[in-house]
Amino acid sequence: MGSSSYVPSQLTVNNLEKHGVSDRDGVIIVDHGSRRQESNLMLNEFVKMFRDRTGYPIVEPAHMELAEPSIKDAFNLCVQQGANRVIVSPFFLFPGRHWYQDIPSLTAEAAKEHPGISYIITAPLGLHELMVDIMNDRINHCLSHVAGNANECEACTGTGKCRIYD
Amino acid sequence: MGSSSYVPSQLTVNNLEKHGVSDRDGVIIVDHGSRRQESNLMLNEFVKMFRDRTGYPIVEPAHMELAEPSIKDAFNLCVQQGANRVIVSPFFLFPGRHWYQDIPSLTAEAAKEHPGISYIITAPLGLHELMVDIMNDRINHCLSHVAGNANECEACTGTGKCRIYD
């Protein structure tokens, strides 16, 4: 999952044509889940971004714990929309207990109710070269803001946090 | 921080020239910290990727809690290497208590020991359009693997996890 596994976007597009998500695949994007409703709502926003940018027909959010919808709820929704395969995509940076154990166990439990529907759990996100670009972009945006050349991003808007502390 | 704030990479490069990290900036990449040493070591790997890909001269890892080095340790190391400004970049997906309170508080504490050194804390990473591309790339790679056309990524190697469950 280090830099050697980075797939340039052109290759990604070509592979997608061969092995990508089909109309009969459902994608579940699952985060940990939070007691803060604000954080749970951000997953919905990410799912919307994901749908818009990829064009995949069936994409559902789920929280591993602490909040609804559960993985089971999302699995049911995918099947109701016609999915015959479910791709569970953890919105987690690193592999850890949740990725190794909890998400597979909850997904197996959800799948029991749907014989004939297969599923796969994808890798965590963190060690991808584009993650460097995201962090670099955040740094650049913050420095541009304090230099007076960019608005605060949505995370900081109204908090007054995006500033140089002397 | 939604899709409207996405900065195409060409713009990023241009802005970096104007407002980017200079030789006198130190970057601290801070994650939560884990009792699992394996997870802490992944941050070191990310820091290496970040150094290699950006070319920034001073980049240090730190864990917010549960593991060393601390934010204070990393801040000291940045100053020792000549930084007169420190950019604290949280390796977190969403803004939450750690981003709002804990990291700012720990950074303020660390900065107290270095009068004249300014700092800034950057935004969380999650709602960035490139994050969609990372997740899409993970999905594509997993599906290519189960189709027999790609190796397991590093997260799955040896675990036998990257497969279709029927």
Short description:
With 166 residues, chain A is α/β, with parallel strands linked by helices. The first copy, chain A, has helices at 9-19, 37-54, 71-80, 97-112, 129-146, and strands spanning 25-31, 58-63, 85-90, 118-121.
The two chains with the largest interface, and their residue counts, are:
A-B, 84 and 84 residues
Q: Which structural class do you get from the secondary structure elements of chain A?
A: alpha/beta
Mean pLDDT of chain A: 88
Helix percent of chain A reads 40-55%
Q: What percentage of amino acids of chain A are in beta strands?
A: 5-15%
Strand order of the largest sheet of chain A: 2-1-3-4
Number of helices of chain A: 5
Sheet with most strands of chain A:
4 strands, parallel
CATH topology of the largest domain in chain A: Rossmann fold
Number of domains of chain A: 2
Strand runs of chain A, count: 4
Uncertain residue segments of chain A: 1-17
Topology order of chain A in helix (H) and strand (E) letters: HEHEHEHEH
Distance linking N and C termini of chain A: 38 Å
**CA-based shape of chain A:** elongated
Radius of gyration of chain A: 18 Å
Assembly type: homodimer
The CATH class designation of the largest domain in chain A is Alpha Beta
CATH-defined architecture of the largest domain in chain A: 3-Layer(aba) Sandwich
Keywords (chains A, B): Lyase, Metal-binding
InterPro entries (chains A, B): CbiX-like (IPR002762), Sirohydro_Cobaltochel/CbiX (IPR050963)
Protein name (chains A, B): Sirohydrochlorin ferrochelatase, chloroplastic-like
Organism (chains A, B): Nelumbo nucifera (Sacred lotus)
